[in-house]
Write a structure and sequence with these properties.
The protein is mostly helical. The protein folds into two domains: about 1-15 and about 80-113; about 20-75, no CATH class. About 65% of the residues lie in helices and about 10% in strands. The chain has four helices and two strands, in the order αβααβα. It has a two-stranded antiparallel sheet with strand order 1-2. Helix 1 (about 1-15) packs antiparallel against helix 4 and helix 2 (about 35-45) crosses helix 3. The longest helix has 27 residues, at about 85-110. It is elongated and about 65 Å long.
Length: about 110
Amino acid sequence: MKRFLILYILIVFLTVSCAGPNKVVWTKPDFRQDQFDNDRKECIDSIDINLNSEAFGKALEECLGKKGYEFKTVEKVEKPPSAGTIVLGIVALIVVIPLAATYIALLVLGGVW
């Protein structure tokens, strides 16, 4: 029965991990991608490459901020569920949830059939 509980936990973990993080973007009035690429390259070239990754990231953020860019988080746009997600949901409803309920019932009843 422990195997079914582990399987259920694995399926829940996989479902939750598919959610993914929010998208992060740089914005600026009259934003153009080619101008951003040039500004970013200039900033990278002006930063000491011996900095650790956190300090390098902060320096890059400061440099781009001085050039008028803002760092924003964009909410993720919900996509319709894929066929794989639908199949996973059906499997969870038909197989995993009744098995988990049976496992919990056996634990509560102390293994009495």
